[in-house]
Design goal:
The structure holds 2 protein chains of 2 kinds. Chain A is mainly beta. Helix content of chain A is 8%, strand content 27%. The longest helix of chain A has 7 residues. The termini of chain A are far apart. Chain B contains 26 helices and 17 strands. In chain B, a hairpin with a 3-residue loop joins strand 10 and strand 11. In chain B, helix 12 runs parallel beside helix 14, helix 21 packs across helix 23 and helix 21 packs across helix 25. The longest helix of chain B is centred in the C-terminal third of the chain and has 22 residues. Chain B is globular, with a radius of gyration of 22 Å. Classes of the chains: A mainly beta, B alpha+beta. The structure holds iron/sulfur cluster (SF4).
């Protein structure tokens, strides 16, 4: 299935080729979890601080157990803040 | 101790500068800066005073850590009655000005009266005098700083000045120090303009001492280590600045767009922190040149940007050819997302203009967004705009409207009133995205529930810097809470408000709180000052300060009815994103908040609360 992957700030370097404005569509196995995608892209789990699926937060303990659905957006940030 | 125990009282009507002792009894109770200066304002002025009259006073105040080697210890605040809101105004700024003032031997400057002609205040250590500023009036902040340095033959002077917006009494005019750091909100620059005070120029070489130097050094170093090792303050903020939030807040569906008509903005990724790092198609250069630090700050979150010379705002001119203070998140949001403008260079240009002529970009952007709504609804017409098509998404309209506001010309005069007065004037009061007259910042209360309570109860009108619950609700600092629920938000807001009052009164930057808790701040204050300072004592002082500000506003005529949000936020549900279908649950949070505060059902602090806190 296809999902949208969005990687921001210092995680931008893990984006697959062809991504524009920090996002692109990728093919993942049916029912893949955010943790599966994070591993698949070679990203260190500890850098994936803020993990959102369609804008909703997925806590670290749920990242293995939340199957993604076709067309969903998975957006990830390292620890960031602003004001 | 770092207190010089000296106040500079400047009577602009009489043209006098006098030294007087700092009230140490008040300093013990109100810490410094925001808290202590509020106490002075409360004691010395009538809360019902017209903010732009000579009877209002304006205080520039440092905190106990200002000018010390504590990380970010360079802050000062401007405290006065705000003309935008009619409430207490307290605008905090970084840069170098605050530390210079402390190094000149002054804890605070109290400015009163009104000068018969334009003047600036010159301070060289203990020597203070008012100097004719006839030749500076009408000049920008930047030219004013350069001319003062040139006239006094000292490039090390630190200057806080107003630009044309402050002179023209635009109600959201700010005071800019070090050319790009701002005491920006609530119109403190208009108060300065109303006093015919163009600038304060300071040179200080006396040094700042602390009560226990060895203990202080250890405490300050421990604090710096925490900041360096924290992923946010050690890496995130230096690299991307506050602008990293643009895509985060858009993704969670809390980025107010189209003047609060939407909670997500399609152009967000074009105007955020990542876009500032991208090479431009036109000239192959990046908008972002470098980061930049305030006095004593290891975080260095400030942005320095350079405009694309082919962009319409500067093409064919040599205007803004040097890099300058770049977009921070709030400015990029207000000038961009709120107005639907996704042209990063245009936003950068207007941000430069805000620094150059002394305007608050949050209120400016939000008010232009309101004006765009009124224009598209036919309430503001070409007759008022002089033919300017004030349409959402138009970078040209944004730029022109900002220029007219800075100059106080045409529709810019109306925009300079702020969105509340503008929308009332044109018969659409609900189009103003403000609380107590101040425009709210870059977080939609429908998508981040705690921010609704934050805006509604902020003592200086809508503001994110009074209780930044975004840290918890979105970013997970210190721990993650659900942004879409009202549960627990009353307590969260109160805790943030009281702790923030401590940071704002201590002379340090609130951004340290992404890594520090009060237990990191306390040892620094304890070693800096005489007597014993504990986190409990500081937190109680924070609560005391909050209640003192509240009392000021009540005496100024505000009631619990003013603790509200724009109708749009309370009645119109978010149309997209995780908050789809949601409005703000303020009605649920507010009574609980009053109760936690020890206030009655009308939001008035009870006599028990006031006596417990010694207000
Ligand atoms: S964190 Fe940013 S705003 Fe705060 S003192 Fe440092 S550079 Fe200035």
């Amino acid at each position: 299935m296809k999902i949208r992957i969005k990687l921001y700030a210092t995680l931008g370097k893990y984006l697959p080729k062809g991504a524009a404005r920090n996002e692109t569509e990728i093919e993942v196995a049916d029912g893949a979890s955010p943790a599966d995608v994070i591993r698949g892209l070679g990203m260190p789990a500890e850098l994936c601080h803020l993990v959102l699926v369609d804008g909703n937060y997925v806590a670290p303990s749920e990242r293995d157990a939340t199957p993604l659905k076709e067309g969903e957006s998975l957006a990830i940030w390292p620890p960031v803040a602003g004001g | 101790m770092s207190w010089t125990k000296k106040i500079l009282r400047v009577n602009l009507t009489e043209g006098t500068c006098a030294e007087e002792p700092l009230n140490m009894e008040w300093a013990e109770k109100y810490i410094g800066q925001r808290g202590l200066a509020t106490k002075y304002l409360v004691e010395e002025t009538d809360p019902k005073v017209d903010p732009l009259s000579p009877e209002n006073k304006m205080i520039m105040a440092t905190g106990p850590l200002t000018g010390t080697t504590a990380a970010t210890g360079g802050r000062y605040s401007v405290i006065t009655k705000g003309p935008l809101t009619g409430a207490i105004a307290c605008s905090n700024s970084g840069g170098f000005f605050g530390a210079e003032l402390k190094n000149a031997g002054w804890d605070m400057i109290i400015l009163e009266g009104k000068s018969p002609k334009p003047v600036y205040l010159s301070i060289e250590n203990d020597k203070a005098q008012l100097v004719d500023a006839g030749d500076l009036w009408g000049k920008s902040v930047w030219d004013t700083e350069d001319l003062i340095k040139e006239a006094r033959g000292d490039s090390n002077i630190r200057v806080a000045a107003i630009g044309k917006a402050g002179e023209n009494l635009a109600l959201f005019a700010g005071i800019i120090n070090d050319k790009d750091r701002a005491a920006g909100r609530s119109g403190v620059g208009a108060v300065m303009g109303s006093k015919n005070l163009k600038a304060v120029a300071v040179r200080g070489t006396l040094g700042v001492s602390v009560a226990d130097p060895m203990k202080f050094l250890a405490a300050a170093n421990a604090g710096k280590k925490v900041l360096a090792e924290n992923a946010v303050t050690g890496e995130g903020l230096p690299t991307y600045g506050t602008q990293v939030l643009m895509n985060v807040i858009n993704e969670v569906g809390a980025l107010p767009s189209h003047n609060g008509g939407a909670v997500q903005f399609d152009g967000a990724s074009k105007i955020g922190g990542e876009a500032m790092h991208e090479e431009r198609a036109t000239d192959g250069k990046k908008n972002l040149v470098s980061n930049h630090a305030c006095f004593g700050c290891p975080i260095s979150c400030g942005r320095v940007s350079q405009l694309d010379r082919t962009h319409f705002t500067v093409e064919g001119t040599d205007k803004y050819s040097e890099p300058s203070g770049g977009l921070e998140y709030e400015a990029a949001w207000a000038l961009g997302a709120a107005t639907d403008v996704d042209d990063l260079e245009a936003l950068t240009y207007v941000n430069f203009l805000c620094n150059e002529e002394g305007m608050d970009p949050i209120s400016l952007g939000s008010t232009i967004a309101a004006a765009m709504e009124l224009y598209e609804a036919g309430k503001i017409t070409d007759a008022e705009t002089g033919g300017l098509a004030l349409k959402f998404g138009s970078a040209e309209a944004l730029v022109k409207a900002a220029q007219m506001t800075a100059a106080g010309e045409g529709i810019g005069k109306d925009i300079g009133l702020g969105s509340k007065r503008l929308c009332e004037k044109y018969g659409s009061p609900d189009a103003s995205m403000s609380v107590k007259g101040q425009e709210f910042p870059a977080y939609d209360p429908r998508g981040i529930q705690g921010m609704g309570l934050t805006y509604a109860t902020s003592n200086r009108g809508a503001c994110h810097l009074r209780s930044y619950t975004v840290a918890s609700e979105i970013l997970g600092i210190p721990e993650k809470t659900d942004p879409l629920t009202t549960d627990g938000k009353a307590g969260l807001v109160k805790a943030f408000q009281d702790a923030t009052a401590v940071y704002d009164s201590a002379g340090i930057c609130i951004f340290t709180s992404f890594a520090w808790t009060l237990d990191d701040v306390t040892p620094q204050i304890d070693a800096d000052l005489e007597g014993e300072w504990t986190s409990d004592r500081l937190l109680e002082a924070g609560e005391r300060i909050w209640n003192l500000e509240r009392q000021y506003n009540i005496a100024a005529g505000f009631t619990g009815k003013d603790d509200t949000l724009p109708k749009r936020i309370l009645k119109d549900a978010a149309k997209t994103g995780p908050a789809e279908g949601k409005t703000s649950g303020l009605d649920v949070m507010l009574p609980e908040y009053y109760q936690l505060r020890g206030w009655n059902a009308d939001g008035v602090p009870s006599s028990e609360t006031l006596s417990r806190l010694g207000v």
